[in-house]
């Protein structure tokens, strides 16, 4: 056991983690990522100051989409942390500052008279990122929605209704973007188009291929879209349905069980060094790869096989591997294309600087308060640390329908 303990320490504890607890590391990395976007948009200067790096121009200039991409994705990830509200702790006061920035940013994003009024209906891409913004309101209603002035709420509703005009979208995970926008209307506006929700849920039930995995349309894709989009949006949409009498609310148990199996698979992807297989589309979404693990921790719904201590330890190790290499951020603090630093050739043609802020979706566990057991429990080795250190207690991985 001594040998296992020594190997575990060498693998999971970087030098700076002896003086900083895991939560401090997470808060620092999230706020460092968020600050340029929120400050610029709050000051009505996002379009003026945000750089727009693109992998290529095969799909044309993406700059008209970059603002909503960055803001919507960032808000979907930071929302649970903001939902904790302001407190008298140092972190709580830090949150208060970011909640204020978020309110100002929301107002400018949806105000047609603001310089930073964002694109909600030109091209197809706005549907994607309007859905992430809608997801942010679902994840933090008490801090991001209810306190907004009535006029700002009206502008948010008008902006999100604009995306209903976007048609002929890809026949895959994109169905969930429309469903998530409608889930916002179910919860906050009461004038939802339930057909969009039903279509997305029913199709994904058809596209389930087993063992926690959904095909992305007709075919399964070997990538991380089950974590980037599919499981998290299925969970959020079906959770909203619990507030209604809609018959598809009964899918909640099945959707959660499948997400839990996928979380087990994700956790096993994390090597002792905190790396994981880089395969398929959108690898440059970085920490967003592990959204499902972080979301289930937030919902206190991790599978029995995964302890909070091992998930926190594994995700912290991954976060440091992803966010601390030189070149991850430019000199002004904006994210740059890449997985480990600046690697612009790793971007698909649909990727630009705004796209990269999907990394924030890995931070959902910060919505658990500072004294929650996810943060206070002892660090534990994750599955691959146990296996490669020779731990004889490791059990077989079991397929689930």
TrEMBL record:
Q: Name one Pfam family in it.
A: DUF2264
Q: Which residues form the DUF2264 domain?
A: 23-382
Its protein name is DUF2264 domain-containing protein
Taxonomically, which superkingdom? Answer: Bacteria
Q: Which organism is it from?
A: Hwangdonia lutea
Q: Which InterPro entries does the entry mention?
A: DUF2264_N, UCP014753
């Amino acid at each position: 056991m001594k040998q296992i303990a020594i190997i575990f320490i060498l693998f999971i504890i970087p030098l700076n983690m002896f003086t900083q607890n895991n939560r401090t590391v997470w808060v620092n990395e999230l706020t460092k990522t968020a600050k340029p976007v929120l400050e610029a948009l709050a000051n009505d200067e996002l379009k003026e100051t945000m750089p727009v790096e693109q992998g290529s121009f095969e799909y044309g200039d993406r700059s008209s989409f970059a603002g909503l991409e960055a803001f919507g994705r960032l808000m979907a990830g930071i929302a649970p942390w903001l939902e904790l509200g302001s407190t008298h702790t140092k972190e709580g006061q830090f949150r208060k500052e970011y909640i204020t920035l978020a309110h100002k940013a929301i107002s400018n994003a949806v105000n047609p008279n603001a310089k930073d009024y964002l694109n909600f209906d030109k091209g197809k891409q706005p549907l994607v990122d309007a859905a992430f913004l809608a997801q942010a309101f679902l994840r933090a209603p008490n801090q991001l929605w209810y306190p907004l002035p009535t006029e700002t709420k009206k502008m948010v509703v008008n902006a999100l209704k604009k995306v209903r005009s976007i048609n002929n979208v890809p026949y895959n995970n994109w169905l969930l973007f429309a469903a998530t926008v409608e889930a916002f209307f179910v919860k906050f506006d009461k004038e939802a188009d339930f057909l969009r929700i039903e279509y997305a849920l029913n199709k994904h039930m058809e596209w389930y291929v087993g063992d926690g995995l959904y095909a992305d349309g007709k075919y399964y894709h070997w990538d991380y879209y089950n974590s980037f989009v599919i499981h998290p949006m299925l969970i959020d949409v079906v959770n909203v349905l619990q507030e209604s009498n809609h018959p598809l609310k009964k899918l909640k148990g099945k959707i959660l069980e499948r997400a839990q199996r996928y979380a087990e698979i994700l956790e096993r992807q994390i090597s002792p060094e905190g790396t994981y297989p880089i395969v398929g589309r959108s690898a440059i979404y970085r920490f967003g790869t592990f959204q499902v693990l972080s979301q289930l921790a937030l919902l206190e719904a991790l599978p029995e096989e995964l302890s909070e201590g091992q998930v926190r330890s594994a995700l912290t190790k991954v976060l440091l591997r992803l966010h601390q290499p030189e070149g991850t951020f430019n000199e002004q603090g904006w994210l740059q294309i890449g997985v480990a630093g600046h690697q612009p050739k790793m971007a698909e043609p649909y990727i630009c600087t705004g796209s990269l802020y999907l990394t924030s979706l890995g931070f959902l566990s910060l919505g658990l308060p500072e004294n929650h057991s996810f943060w206070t429990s002892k660090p534990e080795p994750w599955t691959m640390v146990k296996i490669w250190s020779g731990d004889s207690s490791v059990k077989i991985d079991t397929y689930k329908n």
